[in-house]
Specification:
Length: 404
């Protein structure tokens, strides 16, 4: 309810400024708070500066979660604060900070502030105007993707700015619990994180493959590496910035990007997607089932970070996959009735549910969704909320209302 209320309130500035109608304003607000970055604004450069800052600020708020913010600044909320903060920590496995509730939220926000301030200073040092630096800092740290420019990061044509944003997109894809462990000097937990190793392992492989595919396109290894690193980080962190027209890339390179969009970042990060931890659990579950078939009497225990994973966590990951596939399928079917091709409809739904914001197909890299019909926009809004709240909370709310 807090999320829905914030999204409705967040739509008011767009309406009162006369920029957008009610439905488009709600779409932009939900896209902002869910850190998706899909937009119905045709030309962001025509918006007033205060609205551009507000628009990106919704990413920053949504990145760590509205409820986590409330826990950080309010003495207590009704119900269980631990349960509320747990619902705001995306992914199947919760870290130590979840149990600390309000103090945990304060620690997480302290880390969040430091990363935000550091990125802002580095962007200003690279020659980006102060207002633009504020906007892109909020969007990058919240892994949202709203930009002050219609051409996103491509507008600045700066290798330095591209490199800095690449690094920070990946930093914000890391589980913030690991930063908390660094803060309290428990570095052993950092070294034990399988998810962290897989996150950067997948990223490195993707960057390597895309670089090889792009060398003929860019005429050299260095520009190919820069573009591969940036767009791989943008897709995997689900930020949605672009620094070139990746629509003209070879099909294999675009396919790898789409794969990264599905994977997403770490559990407990500001990134969206299916989450690396959940994929690890599903792989371990599949391996466990195969070993049971081969050796029925053997004791097989799935482990993550050296610790046994509960059957509940594995069952939750499996059921999440079922809901995830069903939501993608039915959403795509409905959006396909709009005027766009199947490719555009499917990838736009994927972008919404995974909170990415990258546009594909007929929309182009810098496209906007103003041409979609009202029904499609509501389906995409619902998908954005489902993706940001990890499906279960919203489905439980709908199911609870139906029962009443």
């Amino acid at each position: 309810m807090v999320w829905l209320a914030m999204c409705i309130l967040g739509a008011l500035p767009y309406i009162f400024s006369g920029t957008l109608g009610a439905i488009d304003a709600l779409f932009e607000s939900i896209s902002g708070f869910t850190t998706t970055g899909l937009t119905v604004v045709k030309n962001p450069e025509a918006l007033p500066l205060w609205l551009l800052v507000f628009r990106s600020f919704t990413h920053w708020i949504g990145g760590m979660g509205v409820i986590a913010l409330l826990l950080a600044i309010l003495p207590r909320l009704g119900g269980s604060p631990a349960q509320l903060l747990s619902a705001e920590s995306p992914g199947p496995v919760k870290g130590k900070t979840v149990a600390i509730t309000r103090q945990a939220a304060k620690s997480l926000y302290a880390i969040y502030f430091v990363i935000t301030a550091l990125l802002f200073v580095m962007l200003c040092a690279g020659g980006m105007p102060v207002a633009d630096a504020v906007i892109h800092t909020f969007s990058t740290v919240g892994t949202g993707g709203f930009s002050a420019k219609g051409l996103s990061i491509m507008h600045y044509d700066s290798a330095y700015i591209t490199a800095v944003i690449t690094v920070f997109m990946m930093l914000c894809s890391v589980n913030f619990n690991l930063y908390y462990l660094i803060l309290i000097r428990k570095l052993k937990g950092l070294g034990q994180s399988e998810e962290l190793r897989w996150l950067f392992g997948i990223y490195a492989v993707a960057v390597g493959l895309i670089t090889l595919l792009l060398i003929p396109h860019y005429g050299g290894a260095l520009p190919a590496l820069s573009q591969a690193a940036f767009h791989s980080a943008s897709a995997m962190s689900t930020t949605g910035f672009f620094a070139s027209d990746f629509g003209v890339w070879p099909a294999a390179a675009k396919t790898i990007l789409i794969g990264l969009m599905f994977i997403g970042g770490s559990a407990g990060s500001t990134a969206g997607g299916f989450k690396v931890a959940r994929i690890l659990l599903l792989c371990k579950s599949a391996k466990q089932e195969l070993e049971k078939l081969l050796r029925p009497t053997a004791v097989n225990i799935a482990r993550l970070d050296g610790k046994a994973v509960s059957e509940n966590a594995i069952r939750s990951a499996n059921s999440y996959l079922v809901f995830y596939v069903l939501i993608l399928f039915f959403s795509t079917v409905i959006v396909s009735f709009d005027k766009y091709s199947f490719e555009t409809a499917f990838l736009t739904v994927v972008s919404a549910v995974n909170n990415i914001g990258l546009c594909w197909g007929e929309l182009g890299a810098s496209g906007n969704l103003s041409g979609f019909g009202i029904l499609s926009k509501f389906i995409l809004m619902f998908g954005m909320l489902l993706g940001r709240l990890e499906i279960y909370p919203l489905l439980m709310a709908v199911y609870g209302l139906r029962r009443k």
